[in-house]
Amino acid sequence: MNAVPAIRWDDPSLVLLQRREIGKVVREVYRRGEEEIIKRYRMEGAGRHDRRKVWVREHRALERLRGLSVPVSGGFVRTRTPDGWEVTARREFIPGSPLDELDGSDLDAAAVLIADMHARGVVTSDLNLRNFLQGEDGRIWFLDFGRARVFRWRSPLLWTYIGRDLARFSRSGLRNDQARWARFWPVYAARAAGHGLPVPLLRWCVRWYGRRYSRPYGEGR
């Protein structure tokens, strides 16, 4: 990913949105104007740091999903620093508003988007409400792919991970609201079937994982 231009961290157009420190990794998220989101990972000292390589996961997922309602990846650069390593990852900024709930036509649009992502072999592992956005264009977008996994089509693991993705969505995205799930599932299933996904098997996987996430929303993990 060496073609990504270098960032000037003294650029006044950079706005720090979030900063977290976990172990030896400092993660910062910036917005540059209305153009892009920049994630900076600083890993200092010896030893293993972030073995998940979330910047790789996000880039691979976004490349696989080009053309859907997801940001365009700007790639990433990994460089050595005097104290360790630094990774800079960039993606398109999507203007819009966060959603308090997914309901009605927004829920239908989310169902179609999720089915389209799954059909391309991408499982987000984080279908949380906070990761959805209603864009200024009126579309429903999904933004965060730091936990995503990309599978080959028809890999047996894909069906399992899709089932877990949907069970978590029912809990974290829909807050175990059965009325909204009853609206979501037929839309998702019809779209998924059109892509050739094995809907009966996926439903079984959702039910199996659903038993693990059956506690009321907000009770523990």
Brief write-up:
This protein has helices at 54-64, 104-119, 156-173, 178-194, 199-210, and strands spanning 14-22, 25-32, 36-44, 73-81, 84-92, 96-98, 122-123, 132-135, 140-142, 149-150. It has 221 residues and is of the alpha+beta class. Strands 1-2-3-5-4 form a 5-stranded antiparallel β-sheet, with helices on one face. It has a 3-stranded antiparallel β-sheet with strand order 6-8-9. Strands 7-10 form a two-stranded antiparallel ribbon.
Helix content: 25-40%
Number of strands: 10
- Spatially, the strands of the biggest sheet line up as 1-2-3-5-4
Helix and strand string, N-terminal first?
EEEHEEEHEEEEHHH
Helix-strand makeup class = alpha+beta
Q: Report the portion of residues in β strands.
A: 25-35%
Average per-residue pLDDT, rounded, comes to: 89
Largest sheet: 5 strands, antiparallel
Any idea what the radius of gyration is?
18 Å
Shape: globular
Describe the structure.
It is a single chain. The protein has helices at residues 54-64, 104-119, 156-173, 178-194, 199-210; strands at residues 14-22, 25-32, 36-44, 73-81, 84-92, 96-98, 122-123, 132-135, 140-142, 149-150. The two termini are 36 Å apart. Helix 2 (104-119) crosses helix 4 (178-194) and helix 3 (156-173) packs across helix 5 (199-210). The relative contact order is 0.12. With 221 residues, the chain is an alpha+beta fold. The strands form 3 sheets. The chain has a 5-stranded antiparallel sheet, covered by helices on one side. The protein has a 3-stranded antiparallel sheet with strand order 6-8-9. A two-stranded antiparallel ribbon has the order 7-10.
